[in-house]
Every structure is written in C-alpha cells, then in structure tokens.
Amino acid sequence: MKLNSAKEVWIARLIAWFVIGAVSCGIIFxxxxxxxxxxxAIPNLSEKIAxxxxxxxxxxxxxQDGASVPTTSSPSGxxxxxxxxxxxxxxxxxxxxxxxxxALASIGGMFGLGGLCGVGISVLLMLLPFFVIRKKxxx
Length: 139
What we know:
This protein has helices spanning about 5-40, 45-55, 100-130, and strands spanning about 1-5, 60-70, 80-90, 95, 135. With about 140 residues, it is an alpha+beta fold. Strands 2-3-4 form a 3-stranded antiparallel β-sheet. A hairpin with a 5-residue loop joins strand 3 (about 80-90) and strand 4 (about 95). Helix 1 (about 5-40) packs antiparallel against helix 3 and helix 2 (about 45-55) packs across helix 3. The longest helix has about 35 residues, at about 100-130.
C-alpha cells in the first residue's frame, strides 16, 4: 500500500500494529495451549528441558521410571507414574531431579516453548507494516 504523506503512512502503520497486536494475543494463546502440549510427542524433550534447568553442565544422565501411584487419596482417583533423573557431573558428583521438579520443568518448558513460538510469529507480523505500508515515491 502506497500513501501520499509520511503522516498517512505512520497513521496506517499504527492502525495496523493495533490490529496485529490484537491478533497476536490470539496467536500466542493458541500456540501456548495447543502447540505447547503437542511438543510432549517429541521423544526425550521434556527430559532435556528438566536437565537443562536443574543440572546445567551435566555430563551424563540416567532416568528411572517409578511405579504408577495414585495422584489423589480417592480410591477411584487417577494414577500417574514417577520419574527421577540422576545427573552426573565431570567431577564425579551427582544430583537428583525429583519427580516434582521434573514435572514442573517439563510442563512449564513445553508451554513456554509453545508461547515462544507464538511470540516469534507475532514479532514477524509486527514487522510487516514496515514493508507493506510505504510512501509513494515522488517523481
């Protein structure tokens, strides 16, 4: 779109940014809550996120999956499995990532990665008015 004056260009860009900002809120919401959980399908991604959060610089890790245990006190409640990761560092020391830490890191990491995808898309959309809305060249 080519406009006649710089003032018209900036007014059009501001209107476009307002509209894109509203659309971006929806994009970030959708990517956070739809793309984020779908990232759990990537093998070992949640383990890599937990290790990078709680054991940065670990040379090796080993994962131990525990038994399925009740998640509530109700006998008809849901069951969940436990995960424990042991990180080994270069000096021989070890650190254990407990099940609660693993759950928080993996769930938060997946939703966070989904949200970052949405932010990346939104930033690209916010740059679009600079390329689309311009002033006519004077002849």
